[in-house]
Amino acid sequence: MGMVGGGQGAFIGAVHRMAAALDSEIDLVCGAFSRDLANCSQTGRELGLTQDRCYSDLGEMLSCEASLGLGGGAAGGRGGMQLLSIVTPNNSHVDFASQAAKAGVHVMSDKPAGISLEEVEDLAVVLQATGTHYGLTHTYLGYPMVWQARHIAASEAFGPIRKVHVRYVQGWLASAAEDGNKQAAWRVDPALAGPGGALGDIGSHAHSLAEFICNSRMSSLVAHLRSHLPGRLLDDDGEILFELENGVTGSLVSSQICAGEENGLSITIYGENAGLEWHQEQPNSLIERRATGEVITHRAGVDKPLCDEALSRCRLPSGHPEGYVEAFANLYRNFARALRDGVAPITYGVPGIAEALRGMAFLEAAVESSNCAGALTEIKEPAYGPDRKGLLT
Amino acid sequence: MGMVGGGQGAFIGAVHRMAAALDSEIDLVCGAFSRDLANCSQTGRELGLTQDRCYSDLGEMLSCEASLGLGGGAAGGRGGMQLLSIVTPNNSHVDFASQAAKAGVHVMSDKPAGISLEEVEDLAVVLQATGTHYGLTHTYLGYPMVWQARHIAASEAFGPIRKVHVRYVQGWLASAAEDGNKQAAWRVDPALAGPGGALGDIGSHAHSLAEFICNSRMSSLVAHLRSHLPGRLLDDDGEILFELENGVTGSLVSSQICAGEENGLSITIYGENAGLEWHQEQPNSLIERRATGEVITHRAGVDKPLCDEALSRCRLPSGHPEGYVEAFANLYRNFARALRDGVAPITYGVPGIAEALRGMAFLEAAVESSNCAGALTEIKEPAYGPDRKGLLT
Amino acid sequence: MGMVGGGQGAFIGAVHRMAAALDSEIDLVCGAFSRDLANCSQTGRELGLTQDRCYSDLGEMLSCEASLGLGGGAAGGRGGMQLLSIVTPNNSHVDFASQAAKAGVHVMSDKPAGISLEEVEDLAVVLQATGTHYGLTHTYLGYPMVWQARHIAASEAFGPIRKVHVRYVQGWLASAAEDGNKQAAWRVDPALAGPGGALGDIGSHAHSLAEFICNSRMSSLVAHLRSHLPGRLLDDDGEILFELENGVTGSLVSSQICAGEENGLSITIYGENAGLEWHQEQPNSLIERRATGEVITHRAGVDKPLCDEALSRCRLPSGHPEGYVEAFANLYRNFARALRDGVAPITYGVPGIAEALRGMAFLEAAVESSNCAGALTEIKEPAYGPDRKGLLT
Amino acid sequence: MGMVGGGQGAFIGAVHRMAAALDSEIDLVCGAFSRDLANCSQTGRELGLTQDRCYSDLGEMLSCEASLGLGGGAAGGRGGMQLLSIVTPNNSHVDFASQAAKAGVHVMSDKPAGISLEEVEDLAVVLQATGTHYGLTHTYLGYPMVWQARHIAASEAFGPIRKVHVRYVQGWLASAAEDGNKQAAWRVDPALAGPGGALGDIGSHAHSLAEFICNSRMSSLVAHLRSHLPGRLLDDDGEILFELENGVTGSLVSSQICAGEENGLSITIYGENAGLEWHQEQPNSLIERRATGEVITHRAGVDKPLCDEALSRCRLPSGHPEGYVEAFANLYRNFARALRDGVAPITYGVPGIAEALRGMAFLEAAVESSNCAGALTEIKEPAYGPDRKGLLT
After folding, report:
1. Whether C85 contacts chain B with CB within 8 A
2. In CATH, what is the architecture of C142-316+352-378?
3. Nearest to residue D379, comparing CAs of D390, D391, D366, D393?
4. Is the pLDDT of residue A28 over 60?
5. Do the Cβ atoms of C171 and D289 come within 8 Å?
6. Euclidean distance between CA atoms B269 and B159, whole angstroms
7. CATH superfamily, domain at A142-312+352-378
8. HSE of C205 in the Cβ direction (CA atoms, 13 Å)?
9. Bridge-partner residues for D46, per DSSP?
10. What Cα–Cα distance (Å) separates residue D365 from each residue in D113, D304, D380?
11. Do B22 and C17 touch (CB under 8 A)?
12. Best of B148, B295, B302 to disrupt the D interface by mutation (most D CBs within 10 Å)?
């Protein structure tokens, strides 16, 4: 695996690296960690890379690595990189993914997929043409209890889903963190972040989580977005009411000005006969409340009565907490295994271009609705190929 | 105290009676518990009343009790009743309150105050004319930690409030409970319940809680209400986005079809520097998260560092859980003390006619917005006297 | 009901009064609240009693009340008192209970029952001779989920009980609270409190809870008690290992120097196939963990699938928290109902003289063991009549 | 790094490998994963090792690896292994560690260190003679909030520590899991596990945690151990009362027959002015309750106000849960950094031979006490060198 972005001072790059390393199925072999060559070299050195595989830009990396051959197996090995991890600001995601795809390199991209639906539609065409695989790190879909929630929500006992409420609240932009914080700065710059601020950064996770667990596409919404800090150009706070194709209605809260909140993603889903509640900050518990009065806490762990999809995302017996990195690692591991097995990563539950497209369509619809004082807005159907539903069945 | 409603088969009447009895400051002396005289007599007998003070209707009760004199002190004593507790379905609240007021009897009414803003405005005129006092049992405003939340939210350290999210979810109407359940049946009948279903029954609590803690009046909203069960005429589920006069924005979820939920009222409030979280089902804890990273759990108890208003609503040292009845009893006790001390119950923190009016205006605005596909709707300013703000300062 | 003790400055008296008042089945009709007549009168006045029923000592109260007749029904009514609530320091419990019994008045006594097993054995003889009823306020046995725990622990599915760990920790004696705090002062004085400090005050609750849920008598123990503050004569902290008659082993922690703790009573019980966990500070939840991996939270509420004994101790639907006063009230209400129905209060689940005797035997054994450096000590079999097991079956 | 043990069917080996891989500072370069060569080869293949570095026994591995030179840096690199990870049953720990040390290879050993104090004392001599480093995977000492707890417990504000209660309960041996479960089988066999069953497996963690947070050595104890299943030779359940050198008293529960429990390690510590509570299953929260009534939840995260030792053990911002593997990885990463920096791993907080010795002395004292019906037993002072206190200061 190679990486673009993730040099010193970055945050998410290190997380991708831990996630990729955890299961010893992926080797980091090269990187274009920073356009600043000193930074890039230093990062590579700290990661045990030789200097000749620390590159100053992606183009150079792709061509040099190609010359090493792609021999060593799908996701690592002795040859050049076969998989590119993209951990740069949003505005470069599509360009880098396209370059990689054209060079025959698979892509794992941080989210959101890009800064417009249009450019991601173009990327979809490239991916289809090149036959390369693409994964999008909607981390929270790597948690076992999210899969268990989807499993239960699909059961006859649960009954048809009626409602979903999803909430993603953080507090780190409650004050002007962007002054002097590199992580904050690009996220509030439309040129780098795209049309969504908090909505792109975390609302996109909430959107994918709701669609995934309910197994249905969001079709329309009413959005009220706003920015609380003077001069901040992108939303840092907002509420959305929405409807899914299967008739489920719900609400989505996305805010980064909720002072004191850490990484407060939570979701509740109600069927005719029961409800489910999951909090990312306590990811190993999934609470089910049945209309008959029983309250059950489903717990993660290889020794627990869970569905196969949840079990395969646990590494340890219950009571040995697995967390964010492990969820993230499930995406990387499954991507690698898909490459090894010659199947599409979506087969192994890794979010891909379908999720990327739906996420961008959601973002654009929400911004449009909010700009029109909360008008009811249809979410555009992205133009793409036959695997339209992605993780939705 | 006398009671109208609350005969056998009723629920909330017994709660009012426990709340009134807890602190031994109010005696139940008479009742018109049911229009069915056998039921009324039996209820009275079980409550230790003599048969001559069990009445078949309110009119009879008011005239007979008046003949006993109003001698025995503000909230009980040897003479006739001085306070009427109204625990009937919504459509009779205003009529009964007016009758009582005209007879010089103070009123503690269950919520919502009535079935239209107009009739509650009329009641306000009667109350002003008669000089009688009126309390509305927004139970949750009786909890000490709700007062502590308001206290913290008003502090300089908390910073200006920016956001409030309130959520009230129950599951008991997830299936057609109204077939054969008296409690459910009247709540889904517009003639008895008024314009709001879940919104009137529990959304009104969520509204009053948000206004109270933020200490600001809700000024406009966008409401999406619906009913999930065939033939159900009133909302059983809905989401509202709103704005308060002080600029705070927020969301309100009100649903009785959230299968498995018990009495899930919760609220989060965010200021510039901190956030607060309170769950009615764990009422003795109030969580404060500060932007500086500290997480504090404020706990109820007479031995705890709380504001005076919270402390005066605790009876026991921390760790001795007080609950719903105790919160309810705080309203009754403070009403009785206000009568004893010759002040308006609002002075001692009991919600009154101002809350009643705002609650009805909220209900009507929400129904109107929902009927207009979620149009942005101003909440009408009720016509009433100089104490416009009630509990809001 | 009459009360001895509970004047101004006292704590537990007010709790007993709320507990007795909650369900409107018991009237407080007289009191000897304090040997200080002004205090007694003032307390009575605040409680709405006439001055002629405020007495300066118990003897006077018993004789005057007897002259009023015992006509008005079991637990209140128009005649003299039929039930005496004893809320004085421990050293007077037995004397007052004996006086009442000899006057034909039933007794509800605060715990522990007395200051020596011997004097409580004498009391048992008096009770048997007079045919009066005696209840001991082991409050925690009034909680519905404690009964549910016992119910589950007795089930075949749970399997034979193997272990019990009970822990009662408070922090209010972490510093020298007894200097100037009346509540603390008598509890650390052996003459007033008896042989146990923390052990008598709260360890006795832990003992009764463990025996009750496991439905077996504690037979032997190893105790290590100590006092952390200079000059404090009674234990303020200790650990006990014990065995029940049914072979269950366990531990008991009793401490009032656990700084920061509120009223931290908790218990875990393990059978061959499952475990149970209950925390008094969250009394409406009982967690069951099954060996098969399922985790179930049993919740209090009249609408929940609970055993009859638990249901009959709930007043409200789930999600409307009931707490300490409601648990306490269950003891009073059931005592009153037993008197009304002419059965022994133990029949309705009120702890009585058997629990009183076992509690004293436990206390004396623990102090003896601790004085002998933690020697294994048998718990004495108290001398009393045929209803030896009390709540144990 | 090389590994001995951890072939197919093993559990803890995979955990060590994830822990070592997470931070990309250690490479697994060779292994003697199983005495069964096919198993060993297959395990190596799955881990991406070449067959020539999969060895059938440790001796062969040590000699072959030595021939590759120890060139590539402290904890990995191009040469032979420099660090041996021992993940075999207890009876081989000391032998393997000694072999490695004599070959100049550092050791990271699973716990407990061995099966007798004597053999671990001998190992200490070898380590001292060879100058090799030794780490013991007391995983829980890798959690940031455990370091924060120690930090707070040492503060003046906390006051002198008075009490510690530690509890480690699991349920997986509640039934006869050893029939057909390799993990269970050796743990209940004295020849393989040593003198302690549950006590060696998990009680040893509880012991190290209590000593570590209180920063004091356990000096004496009273132990009651037992086995609940017929034919089980080692303890599966027990309670211990103990005293630390600094006068702190406490209790330790160690049990693997607590049906339904997962990995329930928890600890409470009380000082004169506050208490602390930590649960391994919720490792990112540390609750502090102050005698003044404040309850604070300290939360893990690089953005939180924590002590340096805690912060350096966090990788992510708060709200991104880190768990068991991350705690484990902290031990490996710090061991590797110590080797890189040429200091003893204890300097970077990795438990070592001092903890190994104290752990064995604790085990032997507990078994001796239990065999003598719970006699008060001094914990032997192990014979070892000048760094007696290890992590204790």
Report:
1. no
2. 2-Layer Sandwich (3.30)
3. D366
4. yes
5. yes
6. 11
7. Dihydrodipicolinate Reductase; domain 2 (3.30.360.10)
8. 26
9. none
10. 16, 41, 7
11. no
12. B295
B297 interfacial to chain D (CB closer than 8 Å): yes
What pLDDT, in 10s, does the model give residues B293-325? Answer: 999 999 999 999 999 999 999 999 999 999 999
Q: Choose the closest CB to D304 out of B293, B299, B305.
A: B293
Q: Tens digits of per-residue pLDDT, A134-193?
A: 999 999 999 999 999 999 999 999 999 999 999 999 999 999 877 777 777 777 788 888
CATH no. of D143-315+352-378: 3.30.360.10
Structurally, at CATH architecture level, domain A2-139 sits in 3-Layer(aba) Sandwich (3.40)
Which chain B residues contact residue A253 at CB under 8 A? 165, 251
For B71-116, what is each residue's pLDDT tens digit? Answer: 544 344 567 899 999 999 999 999 999 999 999 999 999 999 999 9
Complex ipTM, two decimals? Answer: 0.95
Which B residues 99-118 touch D at CB under 8 Å? none
Contact assignment for C318 to A293 by CB distance below 8 Å = yes
Dig out the tokens for D340 from the structure: 């890189």
Whole-number average pLDDT of chain D: 93
The SS3 assignment for C265 reads strand
**Looking at the partner chain, which of A222, A259, A274 has a beta carbon nearest the beta carbon of B259?**
A274
Residues of B in contact with D297 (CB under 8 A): 295-297
Compute chain C's Rg from CA coordinates.
20
Average pLDDT, chain B: 93
Q: Please name the chains neighbouring D, where neighbouring means 3+ C-beta pairs under 8 angstroms.
A: A, B, C
Under CATH, what is the fold of the domain B143-314+353-378? Dihydrodipicolinate Reductase; domain 2 (3.30.360)
Chain D residues with beta carbon closer than 8 angstroms to that of C258: 163, 268, 270, 275
In this structure, are residues D82 and D89 in contact, taking their beta carbons and an 8 Å threshold? no
Which residue, among A12, A137, A281, would best test binding to D if mutated, counting the most D CBs under 10 Å from its CB? A281
User: Nearest residue on chain B to D293, judged by CA atoms?
Assistant: B304
Q: Where are the domains of chain B?
A: 2-139, 143-314+353-378
Gap between the Cα atoms of D34 and D263, Å rounded:
27
Longest CA–CA span in chain B (Å) reads: 64
Q: A174 contacts in B (CB within 8 Å)?
A: 270, 272-273, 291
Lowest model confidence (mean pLDDT) among A5-14, A103-112, B344-353, C134-143: A5-14
Sign of the Cα pseudo-torsion (C366, C370, C376, C380, in order): negative
Q: What is the pLDDT of residues C63-99, one digit of tens each?
A: 999 998 765 443 445 678 999 999 999 999 999 999 9
- And the tokens for D204? 């040893």
